[in-house]
Amino acid sequence: MSTRSNSFADLACESLSRRGFLTATAALPSLSLMASEAQAAPAGFKAVAENRLDTVVVPEGYVWQPLISWGEPLFEGMAPLQPEKRGAPFNFTRAEQENRFGTHNDMLALFPANWAYPWPEGTVTRAIMCVNHEAVSPFMAAPGSDGQPIDTGTDALEALYACMGVSVFDVAHDPASGAWSVVKGPAIGVGRNRRVTPFSEVVFDGSAANHPWIVKAGAIVNEVEGARSGAPKVSGAVKAGTFQNCAGGFTPWGTYLTAEENFNSQFFTSNKTSPALVEAQADAAFAADQSIYRYDNIWRIGGPAQFDLSRNPHGPSLYGWIVEIDPYDPDWRPHKHTALGRKANECATTVLSKTNKAVVYTGDDSNNQFVYKFVSRDQFDPTNRIANRSLLAHGTLYAARLEADGTGRWIALTAAAANRAPRGPGDTPFANDGDVMVRCREAALRLGATKMDRPEDVESPTDGSFRGTGTVFVMCTGNQSDSGRAGNAANPRRKTIAGDGLERNHQGHIVRIEEARQDPAALTFTWDIFAVAGDPSGEVAPVTNAEGEVVNVSSWHLGKPTTTGDRFAMPDNITFDHRKFGWITTDGTPRTFPCNDGVYVMPTVGKGPRPVKRFLTVPVGAECCGPLLAWDQKTFFCGVQHVGAESITGQDYRGEPNGPYSSFPTGGWPRDAVVYVRRRDGGTVGT
Ligand code: FEO
Ligand code: CA
User: Fold this and answer.
1) Which numbered ligand comes closest to the C-alpha of 135?
2) Which atom belonging to ligand 1 lies closest to the Cα atom of 344?
3) Which of 42, 63, 155, 493 could make a disulfide contact with 611, Cβ separation 3.0–4.6 Å?
């Protein structure tokens, strides 16, 4: 799609009150642009009402269907699902899960059946789909059969880990009926369908590939996992695989980028005084890293030995990376690109700069963390797909600093710069640039990057050419932390109901960045608050949230509403259609509003306030994620993740007899799924 944005004028308009007219006019290219810009128009469908139904709800005239759900085999010859079974709808072993669709599906991507550049934009009958599997709920996957809430046998623990990672599979589309279907591989291991799991072979590249933490941990993983499944088949590979795969992206050269997010939560400590752990903790940098990420298994039920900090204290350095997978080439091992930094990566959005460099935007989804971009050293070669798989190995990583006056700059994260910056008493120097990549959060903080309210998706609209327009949207999901209470100019705070302080950012907001000269590789930018999530009805809009607090959930900013129409909360992922509408998925709406998470459509160009329409809601307990439009714009896909994991009263499912809290999609035990939505008349969605 062609999405050259004229939103600089919009940015300038909204910035005038903040910066003052006289100083701002000097920066404006043309005030006439501002005067001519039309009011943003709403999307063309009848919005879905707020609801807490246990099903997917779409607008009148639309129909939804599941494409694939947890446990479905990716290969012919495998046993069919047993939907009536409690927990995993198949024999829940690691070997089975390694060949079936995983749980907690998040990011979705489609690839042309045969790669060509630019990418096709019309209707297709075949494609490849890649899907992330972010997490796993042991309570949902392995409920015990003997009165215990969870089955913690060794194979069940390994099977739990194998739920995470990535699924790659062929899909077929029948344009006449609108149906999409999974094309199974002819037999396990044959064809390009596959799972990538926490046990798969991966290769590290970039400046941290030989970092001592990674080398040590990699050797332990290969020793432990090697005893289970044999040595890596590829020299230099590590059987560390990937997990906590949240959002991601895709590259012009036809590869998939999966972002490892909350990797810290997959580790456990069987012995807090083990010599290996004690020795590691003597290193101040390790101790700082452990406290920054708080390595700890969220379920406290143990797991495979490579994830035991007592045995493998540096194991967490193998995760938190952007991982490149080639959907077309199962023999090419997924590459962990250390040059893009280790953090709780949400996404990896690739666009091409004015000089054909690959620019990859990432967000670190934690309270008070940062927005990043990577600029490759080398140029994209549209005639050599394979050569481009090295592009993300070499380049510069930057973190964003957003100034209060609406300007900003990208700070290069290098050891030389970070070691020149002021250091606190416990801060240790960086040994080299690879050490900066491993300890990315520390470097960005020391160099003055701007703390953000959980920056998740960082997306830039583009078309099949992947040419960047310089416009970038940052989805900030919110910030409930005490330390982030005051916020900053780019992360504003609403008034509290009583007017006696600053409200935490319960609903999130969207920041827009305009790169200088519309070049994604630029080192400076301007920015504005594009929209504030929440209720447009007033500057003070009180709601009693799920925690029983009365909070202000207004979508106003600087005395004006930023939105009209449907209220929403906690924007997470976004994609864009050909008409420049953003399709936003939410994760956490029910904490604030009596409505399941869903999809909200708003124009990304035109003057605010921006009309918002609720396009879809997911069933009870689920977040909505992975928004994706087919190239012909006639199908919308999204993920239904952790369905049934929470009741409509906010009760987490932890094996209670009256749970889980959904029977999506087939009336039995709940299963996460990818769904797709079409217009009944086969037309363009959203119009
Ligand atoms: Fe996995 Fe940031 O959501
Ligand atoms: Ca997310």
Assistant:
1) 1
2) 2
3) 42
Count of domains forming the chain: 1
Residue 359: CB within 6 Å of ligand 1? no
pLDDT score for 206? 98
Alpha helices in 399-539 (DSSP H): 415-420, 433-438, 440-446
Distance (angstroms) between ligand 1 centre and the Cα of 349 equals 15
DSSP string, 155-210: HHHHHHHHTSEEEEEEEEEETTTTEEEEE-BSSTTSSS-EEE-TTS-BEEESTTTT
Q: Which pLDDT score, from 0 to 100, does residue 259 have?
A: 98
Q: Give the Å distance between the CA of 346 and the centre of ligand 1.
A: 6
Per-residue pLDDT, 24: 32
CA distances from 157 to 243, 320, 427, 644 (A): 14, 21, 37, 21
* Residue 260 Cβ < 6 Å to ligand 1: no
Q: Is 456 in the pocket of ligand 1 (CB under 6 A)?
A: yes
Distances (CA, A) of 69 to 54, 100, 162, 573, 594: 16, 9, 15, 20, 26
- Tokens read off for 66: 């599941």
623 lines ligand 1 (CB under 6 A): no
Residue 644 is encoded by which pair of tokens?
A: 């049934």
Identify the bridge partners of residue 557 per DSSP, sorted by sequence position: 560
Would you state the pLDDT for residue 300?
76
Within-domain flag for 684: no
480 domain-assigned: yes
Burial letters for 181-198: b for 16+ Cβ neighbours within 10 Å, e otherwise?
A: ebbbbeebeebebbbbbb
Report how far residue 383's alpha carbon sits from residue 401's, in angstroms, rounded to the nearest whole number.
36
Atom of ligand 1 minimally distant from the CA of 454 = 2
Q: What is the predicted pLDDT for the residue at 149? A: 75
Handedness of CA 158, 159, 162, 163 (dihedral sign): negative
Confirm whether pTM is higher than 0.70: yes
Please indicate, yes or no, if residue 226 is contained in any of the structural domains.
Answer: yes
User: What distance, in Å, lies between the first and last C-alpha atoms of the chain?
Assistant: 16
What's the 599 CA to ligand 2 centre distance in angstroms? 13
Q: Which of 435, 393, 428 is nearest to 413 (CA)?
A: 435
**Amino acid letter for position 521:** A
In a domain, 264, yes or no: yes
Smallest CA separation from ligand 1 atom 3, residue:
246
- Domain membership of residue 146 as a residue range: 2-679
Mean pLDDT by 10 residues, the chain (687 residues): 30 31 32 58 95 98 98 98 94 97 98 96 96 95 80 88 98 98 98 98 98 98 97 98 98 98 95 97 97 84 94 98 98 98 98 98 98 98 98 98 98 98 93 98 98 98 96 97 95 87 93 98 98 96 92 95 98 97 97 96 96 98 98 98 95 89 95 98 97
CA dist 507 and 240 (Å) reads 36
453 ligand 1 Cβ < 6 A: no
Q: How far is the CA of 574 from the centre of ligand 1 (A)?
A: 13
CA 425 to mean position of chain CA atoms: 34
pLDDT of residue 39: 85
Residue nearest to atom 1 of ligand 1 (CA): 246
Q: Is the CB of 72 under 6 A from ligand 1?
A: no
State how far the Cα of 55 lies from the Cα of 642, in Å rounded to an integer.
13
